[in-house]
Design goal:
- With 251 residues, this protein is an alpha/beta fold.
- 42% of the residues lie in helices and 21% in strands.
- It has 7 helices and 7 strands.
- The model has no long low-confidence stretch (mean pLDDT 94).
Length: 251
């Protein structure tokens, strides 16, 4: 029944996008500036307020996993953290103590929102903000980070393997890659067919996001020394992005 409902909603979305929403579609398709500003605004003012409360348990679980893997660290030594796609800073409340944060996002329109959020968490030392794609983090030195945080980002990068190569490059030996992402349903399920059907629209409206990537497999292929993921399907989330992975990989 749910698949039929979402199939109908997806069909209506397609028809609307090719008719009454066509001017918006054209702007999103051909103007990167408009697309970036559109996404940062709609994410912070519409999607964030709706989905962030539902995602809080997943974010907390991710950072609980990180703390488990860092339990033997010397807490008086600052933890060098890079967060990729930091957006408005939704993860800051979960950061370990004594963290030095380098923030990176390809969409500079988020910086204003992030600057407001970081004021609430003065216990974090903010080193710098970098505007760059995850596939080309040339301003971040090799083997300089203890932790790379990446939540709901690999769904949107242009090349997942290139982004993962950069993550491995900037991590210190033994460094941790903390990942929380929405992923594809198993390919045998009708829900995956719905994800595939809506993917072109989702990609356009949400600044390059793909709802149907197998990100866990991409990470496993990258050759991290240890990869541990949990698969969860929160019913509170829309079917399009319901499958989630949360876990950690070690360089």
């Amino acid at each position: 029944m749910e698949v039929i409902l979402y199939g109908a909603l997806s069909t209506v979305w397609w028809i609307s996008s090719l008719s009454i929403l066509l001017p918006l579609v054209i702007l999103l398709k051909f103007s990167k500036t408009f697309r970036s500003k559109w996404f940062s605004w709609i994410f912070m003012n519409c999607l964030g307020p709706i989905f962030n409360p539902k995602l809080k348990p997943l974010r907390k679980r991710a950072f609980d996993i990180l703390k488990e893997h860092l339990k033997d660290r010397q807490k008086d030594v600052p933890l060098e953290v890079l967060e990729i796609g930091i957006g408005g800073g939704a993860n800051l409340q979960y950061y370990p103590s004594n963290s030095n944060l380098t923030a990176l996002d390809m969409n500079e329109s988020f910086e204003t929102y992030f600057n407001e959020t970081k004021k609430k968490y003065p216990q974090i030392t903010y080193k710098k903000m970098v505007t760059a794609m995850a596939e080309n983090m040339k301003d971040i030195e090799d083997s300089s980070m203890d932790v790379v945080v990446c939540t709901f980002v690999l769904c949107s990068v242009q090349n997942v393997q290139s982004a993962l190569s950069e993550i491995k490059r900037v991590l210190k030996p033994g460094g941790k890659f903390l990942c929380l992402e929405h992923v594809a349903f198993p390919h045998s399920q009708w829900s995956y067919t719905i994800q595939r059907f809506v993917a072109p629209l989702w990609h356009l409206y949400f600044d390059g996001c793909f709802p149907d990537r197998d990100i866990a497999e991409e990470i496993r292929k990258k050759g991290f020394t240890d990869v541990v993921f949990e698969n969860v399907y929160p019913n509170s989330l829309t079917l399009f992005v319901r499958p989630q992975i949360v876990g950690i990989a070690t360089k």
